[in-house]
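Weekly modeling sync, notes
Attendees: AB, CL, MP (scribe)

Item 1: holo prediction request
CL wants a bound-state model with alpha-D-glucopyranose before deciding which constructs to order. AB pointed out that an apo prediction alone won't tell us much about the pocket. Agreed to run with the ligand included and paste results into these notes for async review.

Input as submitted:
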Amino acid sequence: MSETEWIREHAIRSLERLLPPLRVIMAGVVKDDPNGWQVFERRLWAEWPRLFRLLHQLYGTNYDFFYHLGAILATTAHAWAGRPGQLRELDAQREADPFWYQSQKLTGAVCYVDLFADDLAGMHERIPYLKQLGIGYLHLMPLFAAPEGNNDGGYAVSSYRQVAPHIGTIQQLADLATALRNEGISLVLDFVFNHTSDEHEWAKRARAGEREYEEFYFLFPDRTIPDQYDRTLREIFPTVRRGSFTWDADIERWVWTTFNSFQWDLNYRNPAVFCAMAEELFFLANTGVEVLRLDAVAFIWKELGTSCENLPQAHLIIQAYNALARIACPALIFKSEAIVHPDDVVKYISLQEAQISYNPLFMALCWEALATREVKLLAHSLATRWAIPQGCSWVNYLRSHDDIGWTFDDEDARRLGIDPYGHRRFLNDFYTGDFPGSFARGVPFQANPVTGDARVSGTLASLAGLEQAIHEQNGALTDLAIRRILLLYSVVLAAGGIPLFYLGDEVATLNDYSYVRNATHADDSRWVHRVAYHWRDNGIHNDMAQPGGYIFNELLRLIALRQGQEAFGGNQLEVIASGNPHVLGFVRTAAGKRILVIANFSEREQQVSANRMRLFGLSYCFRDLNGGSEVAANTYFTLAPYQFLWLEPYT
Ligand code: GLC
Ligand code: GLC
């Protein structure tokens, strides 16, 4: 018998054994809702062989593997039973239309509830604003109970079932999810499953010496093992602490803490951790979350002698959670947050793992092209690294709550005559304003004196030159900065997948340096771009004379334009050689429609050959969707500084 046959057979046999007692436990539900239960069993049979294989690969050698299997099944059944009716309807709807997130009508936004709207009640009031922007995907930054003071912007979660008191209650969250859904907006929340805060119930019980919970984490009595691991680990927050372990004086143990000292890494080698987190996942799903952003996916499995990033088992864990979701709450999809080498980013993306993913490469290289005024690295990377499995989508963004890291591939760079190390230094200098002539006003983040590595913080507008222009009260520079911002928006809106906006950027919010006066934020420069929303900057949204107002209205126009173009749906993108080193060109195709995008990344006028465009556009004539005019050039298209064209071919 081959291994696959063995797995299949044991999978089926195990389910045949586990189902009858499960039906007994779930008797009430089975009796009250026989149709629903049938649907559940259908999904269960469809997913079980895959789930069994994954769990067997992860935990098969565990002596009580079958016990854990039963526990996971029971958890899944209870999750399904507790799923509200409206969400079950959504499940059916999404099973019939699984690729809903590929629509060009979908635009995403992300914000901190407290910074954007004070609290969850305030969020309700902002729904019309989100609608005005055309938002259909709303990511609320971590809003759960977390330690007082520094909690890594909420990424140190003390309870996944309790909203932080200043933000609201779980009931308000569930109500908000419903209200959003009724307006066609899907709620996205984080699944921070790599670690908990040191105040989470599990951590407290580990601290109290409960063996069961000690085994949830990585605790070591001395440096022997931590030293062995540290040899091959990357430091994520080197300015906070050297190495990846923290000495906890109370329990006299070294604790694995990849991020901050108060974020304890969970040990997924322990099947009880997998199961406990599955319960939290289901809880979030049943609260009305439609997309879970899988936080820090790269780090969830550890193996001595490796970097402990992107290990094969990390994928198995996510796939197993994916299978659980398909059974109990199939409307739920996953978004991967892997801000790692591009070869590793794509490995998380598949219908069986994370259906959608941040696209950190595209993000970083848009900024790279803006700094260099050359598109070769961006075009090359788009041409060679855009493809992902059918049905999946990139989430394309320009700024997030995090820093920008220069995650391109070194070989890609060298092939184009770029020295990767020197180039990263240049980009850091450029975006922190150190490079002569730079328009950017960013702040360094986590500069590592040993490796020379560093990242950059800053709002979109400050990085794109608006802060400098305003500071110098220079109208010409302001004009260029606005053009740069709109150029970036045009590219990210045209590129496909889900465009995601960091709220505040749509009105060109500038850096806020006051974070340095806040003791809990002072040593984390990401707070420079985590700015309280300026609702009271009265009327900015309608004031076309202010850069923020002008940009907002242009963005509204572009989003609406995109929504009306079927060619912008899906994820299909073909880079074209524009023949001009400053001009990015690509073709989007969907639903039999075609749009040619060309974008000038320099502050000088540029030309591209019209015949070349005809070749790619498969047409003689073009209409610029953006300006509405026909582009009738015979020999050249001329692009003004930072101009972009969305060209619709016609004959
Ligand atoms: C993710 C978050 C980041 C956080 C880290 C640790 O990368 O985006 O803000 O610091 O995870 O949870
Ligand atoms: C993330 C990434 C890192 C990022 C950090 C948060 O998990 O790996 O590049 O900058 O955590 O800032």
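Recorded for review: The pocket of alpha-D-glucopyranose (ligand 2) is lined by residues 236, 296, 339, 402-403, 405, 455 (CB under 6 Å).
Action items: CL to compare against the apo run; MP to circulate these notes.
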